[in-house]
């Protein structure tokens, strides 16, 4: 079976991953999810990788799960579905993940995009959770992450009607951070990733964890974590380098120590 995931880099600290099942609009089957999970796990341990961009094609980021594969699984097959492990592995990825989305971003594709820390969308992007049209529902975090991303009202409408929203509506709702021309989406996402990759790795890691805490805990707990992380960074070489570079009016060079 040919590779269903194109891996490029890292270059300037950025690894680029391209979903590549063009014949089915990058539908996420078990093999592709497994390849993605394995690649991200390796990137986690690679010091040269400081950020990852994940994208698809101009026509589709990913149009959903592989329906043919899903139809072959009964109740027991779904309970033992190896994709659950792959999704859990992807969710554990600890470095900045930027999604560059063009075209269809539906079902599992939308769920995958919502695993990203930052989402850059082309003007032609369509986001949706259409599982209800098949007599099922989102099963890889769609109901939970979508509520956190766009709010209960819009998430409920999207999940229960199965109707997608445009890139512009996704921007207004807070699902994506910015919109570009479709031909510039990957370029812009890569530029954002390179900007992050140039920052102090420990500061990026702890800031990212603090931002995730804001979604998962109450304000008081989140503030305690933030202060603890802020204090820990006082003991890093990167902090000294950052302050020294600012005083000397030069770019900082961070080594992750």
From TrEMBL:
Pfam families noted in UniProt: ECH_1
Keywords: Lyase
Gene Ontology terms, MF aspect: enoyl-CoA hydratase activity
EC number in record: 4.2.1.17
GO biological-process terms attached to the record: fatty acid beta-oxidation
EC top class named in words: lyase
Taxonomy, superkingdom: Bacteria
InterPro entries found in the cross-reference section: ClpP/crotonase-like_dom_sf (IPR029045), Enoyl-CoA_hyd/isom_CS (IPR018376), Enoyl-CoA_hydra/iso (IPR001753), Enoyl-CoA_hydra_C (IPR014748)
Gene3D superfamilies hit by this protein: 2-enoyl-CoA Hydratase, Chain A, domain 1, Lyase 2-enoyl-coa Hydratase, Chain A, domain 2
Protein family membership: Belongs to the enoyl-CoA hydratase/isomerase family.
Protein name from the UniProt record: Enoyl-CoA hydratase
């Amino acid at each position: 079976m040919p590779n269903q995931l194109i891996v490029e880099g890292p270059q300037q600290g950025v690894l680029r991953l391209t979903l590549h099942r063009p014949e089915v609009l990058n539908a996420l089957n078990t093999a592709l999810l497994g390849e993605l999970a394995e690649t991200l796990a390796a990137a986690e341990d690679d010091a040269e990788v400081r950020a990852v961009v994940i994208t698809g094609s101009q026509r589709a980021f990913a149009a959903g799960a592989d329906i043919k594969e899903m139809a072959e699984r009964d109740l027991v097959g779904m309970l033992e579905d190896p994709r659950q492990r792959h999704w859990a592995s992807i969710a554990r990825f600890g470095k900045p993940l930027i999604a560059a989305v063009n075209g269809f971003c539906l079902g599992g594709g939308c769920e995958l995009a919502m695993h990203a820390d930052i989402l850059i969308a082309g003007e032609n992007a369509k986001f949706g959770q259409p599982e209800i049209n098949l007599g099922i529902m989102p099963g890889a975090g769609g109901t939970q992450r979508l509520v956190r991303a766009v709010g209960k009202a819009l998430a409920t409408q999207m999940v229960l009607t199965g109707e997608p929203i445009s890139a512009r509506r996704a921007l207004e709702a807070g699902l994506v951070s910015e919109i570009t021309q479709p031909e510039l989406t990957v370029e812009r996402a890569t530029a954002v990733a390179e900007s992050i990759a140039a920052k102090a790795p420990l500061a990026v890691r702890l800031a990212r964890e603090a931002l995730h805490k804001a979604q998962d805990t109450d304000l008081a707990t989140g503030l305690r974590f933030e202060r603890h992380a802020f204090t820990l960074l006082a003991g890093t070489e990167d902090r000294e380098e950052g302050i020294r570079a600012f005083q000397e009016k030069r770019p900082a060079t961070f080594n992750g120590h």
